[in-house]
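Dear H.,

Thanks for agreeing to be a second pair of eyes. The structure we're designing against is below in token form, covering all 340 positions.
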């Protein structure tokens, strides 16, 4: 089999969770993505909402089994030597659809070929094959080193708990409930004094509610600094739960900056400036408080954008006075305050 060599790597990635406009929830998932020739393989599969089998929330034994399968140290889980590459982020049912491929050894090389979309045990390559993707030939030493590192030292799991700080307990309680609903743990406190270092290490981010004062914020930062921990701090923009969820999701994103689809968002002078690194679906939503301090949301845009920078007109009624714009793709979230 002839194929040019491709580089193989791994990188942290996430499937962004969130609160939908209809009140439903989308689950947050952290996973390890496959990076082929310096680019996430997932980006080559249109705008697929999926995660790799190397997810951080699966039991350690299952995670290890998935890694050993990719190393061909275990039998293929599907007929015809096919392996799961990406699956449904909400469940593990093949009927929801999955990207699979044949993985085989050729001498000391590993080859991934015959990528297909699969919803039952047998793949139909003619009908559902990804004919423009692969085959990929990876040099054995680099391939084994990348996957073997996950077995040798998986390290701490990505921080999927956040610490909520503020005086408005009712708002923080609603935020905590929303975060827990999408798979992110959340604890509420007024300060972090006296919290043991091992407990602080369990948090991937700190979210300051809009009512949190500067003395409270400084005390929390000092508590984390005292035990040598560096975490992202989120300054809540407004008492609007979906907006705060979006800010939290952005803070928890561990994926390398060059490998993010959603690269930039600004909202000024009646337009949104959005930059994406690969073709993907982007949704823009505006949030604001009305005259009675009730949260309002307005869907501004939902469509597929080509790689590059885009200017999207904003509905003036939706972004007037103290509003915020949230941009979402399946793998990332950005938030921007509107300015004139």
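And this is the sequence the design step returned. I haven't edited it by hand at all.
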């Amino acid at each position: 089999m002839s194929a040019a060599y491709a580089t193989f790597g791994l990188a942290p990635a996430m499937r962004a969770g969130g609160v939908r406009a209809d009140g439903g929830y989308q689950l947050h998932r952290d996973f390890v993505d496959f990076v082929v020739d310096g680019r996430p393989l997932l980006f080559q599969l249109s705008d697929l909402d999926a995660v790799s089998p190397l997810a951080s929330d699966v039991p350690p034994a299952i995670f290890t089994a998935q890694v050993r399968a990719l190393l061909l140290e275990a039998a293929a889980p599907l007929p015809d030597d096919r392996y799961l590459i990406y699956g449904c982020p909400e469940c593990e049912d093949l009927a929801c659809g999955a990207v699979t491929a044949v993985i085989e050894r050729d001498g000391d090389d590993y080859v991934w070929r015959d990528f297909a979309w699969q919803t039952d045990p047998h793949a139909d390559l003619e009908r559902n094959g990804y004919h423009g993707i692969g085959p990929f030939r990876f040099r054995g030493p680099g391939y084994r080193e990348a996957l073997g590192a996950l077995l040798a030292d998986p390290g701490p799991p990505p921080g999927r708990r956040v610490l909520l700080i503020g005086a408005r307990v009712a708002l923080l309680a609603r935020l905590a409930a929303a975060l827990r609903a999408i798979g992110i743990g959340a604890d509420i406190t007024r300060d972090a004094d006296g919290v043991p270092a091992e407990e602080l290490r369990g948090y991937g981010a700190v979210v300051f509610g809009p009512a949190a004062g500067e003395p409270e914020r400084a005390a929390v930062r000092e508590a984390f600094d005292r035990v040598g921990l560096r975490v992202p701090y989120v300054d809540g923009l407004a008492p609007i739960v979906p907006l705060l969820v979006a800010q939290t999701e952005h803070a928890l994103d561990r994926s390398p900056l060059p490998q993010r689809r959603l690269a930039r968002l600004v909202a000024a002078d009646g337009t949104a400036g959005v930059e994406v690194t690969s073709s993907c679906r982007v949704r823009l939503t505006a949030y604001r408080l009305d005259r009675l301090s009730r949260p309002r949301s307005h869907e501004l845009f939902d469509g597929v954008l080509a790689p590059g920078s885009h200017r999207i007109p904003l509905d003036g009624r939706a972004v007037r006075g103290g509003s915020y714009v949230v941009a979402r793709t399946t793998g990332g979230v950005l938030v921007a305050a509107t300015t004139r």
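Two observations from my side: The chain has three domains: 8-152, 159-253, 260-340. Residues 116 and 129 are 4 Å apart (CA to CA).

Warmly,
E.
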